[in-house]
Amino acid sequence: MKRLLPHIVAFLVVCIWGTTFVYTKLLLLAGFTAAQIFMLRFAIAYVLLLGYCIAKGIRWRADSWRDELVMVALGIFGGSLYFLTENTAMNYTTTTNTSIIVSMCPLFTSAFIGLFYKSERLNRWQTVGTLMAASGTIAVIMNGHFVLHLSPLGDSLAFCACLCWAFYSLFITSVKDRYNIVFITRKVFFYGLLSMIPYLIVHPELNIHLLEGHPELVWNLLFLGCIASMLCFVAWNWALKRIGSIVATNYAYLNPVTTIFFAWMILSEHITIWFILGTILILSGMGIVEKLRKKE
Questions:
Q1: What is the C-alpha end-to-end distance of the chain, expressed in Å?
Q2: Which of 29-36's residues contact partners 24+ apart within 8 Å by CB, and which partners?
Q3: CA-CA distance, 203 to 184, in Å (whole number)?
Q4: Residue 238 in 3-state DSSP?
Q5: Per mean pLDDT, which of 20-34, 94-108, 109-123 is the most reliable?
Q6: Residue 106 has pLDDT above 80, yes or no
Q7: Mean pLDDT score of the chain, rounded to an integer?
Q8: Which of 67, 188, 218, 282 has its CA 20 to 30 A from that of 211?
Q9: How confident is the model at residue 232 (pLDDT cuts 50, 70, 90)?
Q10: Highest averaged pLDDT of the listed ranges 46-60, 128-142, 254-268
């Protein structure tokens, strides 16, 4: 059960992240910008983690300035820069394009970490497995409509988001075994918010007034801050520490699966044969990667 638990946690986190599009979309429709939603949800998560750290006496600083710089990088690549590039991309390109490009995070993560950590490199069959999973993700997202509308700016931003998450996984690999997971996650939120100061100088308004008289929006924001940010980031970083960045990140291939399944349950959207075939490819590819990893 101990070996299985990190996989269950990673899967559940991806499932929750797969539902956030609904809550984020409602806040966007209410008048919030992507940057405002990011800052509010990260602020909620940081305050909660800060209170927990004070109560538990968890350290405030890293052991060295180099490690502190790694924490800064985690906050930028896993926080502000990732969310801004991903959400802004959808203003200039289709949701399909953005989903396909961002869902390739595991491929870039495997490549990046393999360059710096020989023990984390995938062998030939593991590479085949992750390519199968990537192909399945594309099939799920395209849903039988094999038409892409290229948009250089939007697609480039989505690609940047993909690279940001790969860098986040790379940097956290260097510190996850030496620091408390809650400490790392708190730093991610803190530096993610701190790196947004230039944006706040130009756009100081947060549109808090939009929440007045709309309890459903308050609950959406609390879900994004308390569950999707605080709880999920802590759980995700814990899973990374237990099963490694590459294996954990491969669960991101399931993100569009959970998103479409959630839309089917809540919004009555149609599930096609492409969704089923794509899901089978994803699960088969992930199974190959994990089975061969255990044999090593």
A1: 20
A2: 30/210, 30/214, 30/217, 31/207, 31/210, 32/207, 32/210, 33/203, 33/207, 34/83, 34/84, 34/87, 34/88, 35/84, 35/87, 35/196, 35/199, 35/203, 36/205, 36/206, 36/207
A3: 28
A4: helix
A5: 20-34
A6: no
A7: 78
A8: 188
A9: very high
A10: 46-60
282 Cβ neighbours under 8 A, 6+ residues apart? 132, 133, 136, 137, 140, 253, 254, 257
Longest alpha-carbon distance in the chain? 57
Predicted local confidence at residue 24, as pLDDT: 78
Take residue 41 and report the two structure tokens written for it.
């949800």
User: Dihedral through CA 30, CA 33, CA 35, CA 41, nearest 10?
Assistant: 0
Q: Tell me which range, 11-20, 58-67, 87-96, 238-247, is most confidently predicted by mean pLDDT.
A: 58-67
Measured CA to CA, the distance from residue 136 to residue 254 in angstroms comes to: 9
| Separation of alpha carbons 7 and 257, rounded Å | 17
The alpha helices in 76-180, defined as continuous H runs, are 81-89, 95-102, 105-116, 124-142, 152-173
Enumerate residues 6+ apart whose C-beta is below 8 A from 105: 162, 165, 166, 249, 252
DSSP state of 144: T
- Cβ atoms within 10 Å, residue 271: 14
Query: pLDDT at residue 226 above 90?
Result: yes
* Residue whose token pair is 């059960």: 1
Describe the crossing of helices 255-267 and 5-29 by its angle, rounded to 10 degrees: 60
Can you give the length of the chain in residues?
296
118 is written with which tokens? 């020989």
Share of the chain above pLDDT 70, in %: 67
